[in-house]
Amino acid sequence: MAISWHEMTALALGRAIEDGTIDSRELADYFLSRIGDVDPAHTIYLRTTAERARAEAAAAHKRAGAGLRLSPLDGVPISWKDLFDTAGDVTSHGSPVLAERVPNDDALVVERATRAGLACLGKTNQTEYAFSILGINPHYGTPANPFDEITPRLPGGSTSGGAVSVSRGLAAAAIGSDTGGSVRVPSAWNGLVGLKTSFGRIPVDGVLSLSTTLDTVGPLTRDVADAAALFAVLDGRSGPGTKAWPDLAGANTGAMTLARPTGMVWDNLGSDVAEVTEAALDKLATANIAINSVDVPEFGEVDKLISHFGPYHAAECHAVWGEAIEAKPNLIYGPILERVRLGGKMTASNVERTKHGLKTAALSLHGRIREAGVLIMPTVPVGPAPIAELENDIDAWTAANAVVLRNTRLANFLGCCALTLPCGFDTNGVPVGIMLMAPSGDDERLLRMGAAIEEIVAN
Question: What domains are defined for the chain?
């Protein structure tokens, strides 16, 4: 049976465009048509950029016919989170406060994707100001997790629409941002690969910020190969005259060592998550990958610092967006407004003390990983709750946000890159993710390891 285009990986679509079995113009129309059919309420895509997508697809078709393709992804349609500037289109950070904001220029990463020939399908839904891991946005509607057809469940955030655009077959891949897990949590709950890149590796010029010291840009994809390809595009290494994608064949599972942190990241897991992730580790051990238990006191140091001094990134968010938000506070979802206002109350001394403590802990952790091995742990401790249980209950929302964020935020606060891989399903049929975490700068190594592990845990 032939595979439908929306079930194919981005690289597979690119190969089909190259060999002429898929016309990139028809491919763009195919995805735009699916978006119209599947997302009539615009909860996944806040807005499409149909004219741009068709023009970019037409240019890709001409290049393919002339043998002048810009990259292996030339002509492939993807989605962009609503915090990446696209020239002439509203970019609102998922907030009604910024509903009339129209940038004049593309974000630098959008420019790079365009130079690689990718087609922009549109801007996807997100948590307002990217300031929650759950994905709830009552103003524009929350895109429900597609894996539970009975109960509308959380999609994960803040790249909620991006993840659902790929899992529902409305884009070949998505580009999101990750400040505390906003690429990895929605990827895990939507059965996708999600890459949290090293801070500073991918430029954030033209990307609306949450935290100037934590924000990273990364892809949400169907497999590790696609994540590596898009990483190369975003990193600026995919244009004419540049090298190919990272070498995913470079990982020797027999020589691979993983470190399983003891304590908090494996504590209080949902029973389904515990069972699925333990089974994934068993598969890796059977494949002769060494997995050693290791104490990671730096994780406790993160909790201690944030609990004592407060989440310093809230202060960074307030510095950028506080004035605009306070001018129209009635347009902000209550829990998000509360978090931003918390940032306005934090002292500069406490912010700097937190940053200093985290920097010290990060240096210690990086040395520990290089000695013990890349860390492996559940991406999210629990499965996604029903949206209705949290949307109008600020206490339940706050408690759930803290639990879901617990594991992923460690990579951001401790200066690491991280990768989540799908490893099974819970009893509700919702995917479960397992996460690898490595020191800053090890992105390519993490992708190589992920490609090798992906084959093992998927079987």
Answer: 5-234 (3.90.1300.10), 253-310+350-457 (3.90.1300.10)
